Every structure is written in C-alpha cells, then in structure tokens.
Amino acid sequence: MHTPKPVALVIDARYIVPIEPAGTLVDHSLVIDDGRIIALAPTASIERDYVAQVRVALPTHALIPGLVNAHTHAAMVLMRGIADDVPLKPWLEDHIWPREGRHVSPEFVADGTLHAAAEMLKGGITCANDMYFYPDAAAHAYEAAGMRALIGMPVLDFPTPYASDADVYLAKGFAARDAFKHSPRLAFALAPHAPYTVADETWRKIVMYARQLDLPIHTHIAETKTEVDNARAASGESPVLRLDRLGATGPSFIGVHAVHLQPPDIETLATQQCNVVHCPVSNMKLASGIAPVAALAARGINVALGTDGAASNNRLDLFSEMRIASLLAKVATEDAGTLPASAVLRMATLGGAIALGLEREIGSIAPGKHADVVAIDLSGVDVLPMYDPVSHLLHVAGREQVTDVWIGGERVVDARRLTTIDESAVAARARAWQQRLQ
Ligand SMILES: [Zn+2]
C-alpha cells in the first residue's frame, strides 16, 4: 500500500520556469520541506506521492527562482532621487559624498537596508549582493527581513566617518562577519570599492585574506572612460590587468559594471573565470556607457544583473533591469536576436547565484536547493494574451505582477503583503530621513 509522504509545503503552479533545464513546465508542482525543494513534477503525480501541511494553488501564475540582485548599495535607497540628471563627478562630489559624510551612521544603514529589503522582496528579489558602510547594521536588517544576502566588507584607502584607514575598514568588516557567522541566510565578501580608490598595497592584503578565508572579492571596475584613461596614464595598465597582476582575479571575483573594456581585459576576465555584474540602468542614468555584455557572454564569462544603489537607478527592480539589459544589448549590437529573454532571466537568477558562489544553493528551481521562489500573476489585461511565458516575464511582466515570495520555504510576501517587515513603519522612517537629508 502506497503511503503519501508528509511535507511542509506544496505549490501548484500553472507555469514553472526552473532555469535549469531551460524552458517552461506546465501544470507542475513544487514540493518543499525543511526549507528546501525536494521534488518538482506534474501535479497529478505529486498528489499521489505527497501530503502537504500547506498547499498553495497558483492557477494563473508563473513560478520562477528568486531573483538575485548581484550589486547594490541598499542603504542608499534613502538618497533615491536626491540628485537626478547630474553627471557622475558632480553627482558624487557635490551631492552624494557630502551627504554621506554628514548622515551615514549605523541608524541610517539599518533603516535604509530594511527599506531596500522591503522594496526588493516585493519585487521578487530574494538575494542581494550589498556593499556599503556599517555592514553589521546591514546584516541585521537583512536578517530581520528574512532575506538572503552577501554582505560586502567595504574597504577604501581614505577616511570616512566609518573608518580611518584600510586596516580599520578590514577589522570592522571582519568583526561584522564574526558577529553574523551563524546567520543561515548571510555570507560575507571583501568589498574594496574600486581599483582607483584602493592602492596596490591594500589590494595585496585583500587578496591574501580572500585566499586564506575563501572569500569573494566584490568591486566596481572599469565603470567610466575617465577611470580607465586615468589608470592607463598612471601605470600604463587597465584596471582589469592591474587587478590581475595583483592576484585579485579568479572564479570568486565579482567585477561590477565592466563597461570600458579592451580585448585583453575580456580575455583576462574569461581566462580567470571572473564574474561580471551588469547594471544597465545605472550605467545609462550616469551616462557611463554600454557594457559589452553580449561579447562577455559569448566568451563564456558569467554575467549577473544588478540595480546598483537606488540613488543611481532609481529603482531596486530587477524586472526593469532585465528588460533594459535585453533592449540595450539589442540596440548596441544592432541585432534583435541578442540577449533573448531566456538568457537574461538566467542572468538574473542562476547568473547571480554563480557570481555570489551560491549556485549549489540557489539560482534555479531544482531538488536540493533552497526554496527561494517567486510567483508572478499573468492573468491581467495588461499581460494577456500570452504565447510564451518566458518572453512575457521579460518583456511584459513587471514587479507589480509579483504576488508571493518564499525564501527557504518561508512566505515573506503573501498576496503582495510583506510578512517580515512593517511596511508603514519603513515608510515613516523614510519620510523622517527625507526631512534630515534635504
Ligand atoms: Zn555600485
């Protein structure tokens, strides 16, 4: 006699896009127990084999893996829209850095990160790669939100209210990492800001720690033409070749932007199996340029997608990032076949997981992985008709169609409402910060 196995949760969905393998499954169910996916099969066979404590029916939805925002400065959401339509140099020097100097504190980072987590969760982002001051305050906020995050331990070679020199930045970062070492959804990375703000001697220390402690290195690289021109004038090397000489490149290297690259840079990123995070909206808004994403992907380089901070975007919205990445690559290559929907959806999920070193844990809907999944309702008149769900997820649907989000099997968004965060309290804190920052 066949006895169905008791499990915590079964989700029946009209469409499931597992990413691995590519394509769409129709009328399948996902079985979740102890926070992990244990089966994915046609609904009829799941009904025979499992009995669920909780069963959720999604008759008009697509279920996708949680989106991975592979580069952000979450707390900067409190500076959203504070200086728009300003070029990068005055944007940083006249608007962002002076306000950071006056206002950034553990309280700012705690409030800003929780706010960003609320926005990201409601938009189907279940994991973020963050880089900002006071990583301990950020870690605390992600933990409270129930969100997965790779927390950057920031390093700069100049003083800020957070730290006086590189050694102090590193010591504070490691203290935060120690404090959260038992937090199951958090991990830490070394986050030197950029080649042009961190000197060789400090990079060597960072490389040593990365090797000793098996930590990823998360940094901005080759974002603007000025950065690359200045680097060449100073040392004759491009930023990518300089970091390669210093030993920073490798499969745990997460290079953000990578807009201004020469063929030897691309060759080095490929040979060293580096990861690139493409932030198309930030690059467009700050007029930095167009990253050669199609060329990077064609060379086998793993590409992930990021929003960057909300001050340079101004949304923490991977649906808009996916759509714009695809459109921008098409116009840049003058080829409508460049970056099709399936490739971009993969970048925003599995590509992000690979970049963060989490591809065995998240990034696709596969048995054994954490149950980080997102339901998108595709029944509205703004979406119908629908001939291809994957294409629709990219070119039609937006974060407004996200209805439910699970992380490790925990329902963190339930019928568009956050279950871990008091949204009205977050909004009240944002209004208070707006008064102070104006
Ligand atoms: Zn950034």
What is the percent of helical residues?
A: 25-40%
Tell me, what is the CATH class of the largest domain?
A: Alpha Beta
What structural category do the secondary elements indicate?
alpha/beta
The residue-averaged pLDDT reads: 97
Q: Main sheet, how many strands, which sense, barrel?
A: 8 strands, mixed
Task: Please write out the topology.
Blueprint: E1 5-16, E2 25-33, E3 36-42, H1 43-49, E4 50-65, E5 67-72, H2 88-103, H3 106-122, E6 125-131, H4 135-145, E7 148-155, H5 166-179, E8 186-192, H6 200-213, E9 217-221, H7 225-235, H8 239-245, E10 253-257, H9 263-271, E11 275-278, H10 280-285, H11 293-298, E12 302-305, H12 318-333, H13 341-355, E13 373-377, H14 389-395, E14 402-407, E15 410-414, E16 417-418, H15 423-437
The structure holds zinc ion.
Keywords, please?
alpha/beta; TIM Barrel; 8-stranded mixed beta sheet; 39% helix; 25% strand; globular; binds zinc ion
Structural features, described:
The protein is of the alpha/beta class and 438 residues long. The protein folds into two domains: 96 residues, Urease, subunit C, domain 1 (Roll), CATH 2.30.40; 289 residues, TIM Barrel (Alpha-Beta Barrel), CATH 3.20.20.140. It is 39% helix and 25% strand. The protein has an eight-stranded mixed beta sheet, with helices on one face. It has a four-stranded parallel beta sheet with strand order 5-6-7-8. It has a four-stranded parallel beta sheet with strand order 9-10-11-12. Strand 6, helix 4 and strand 7 form a beta-alpha-beta unit. Zinc ion (ZN) binds next to loops.
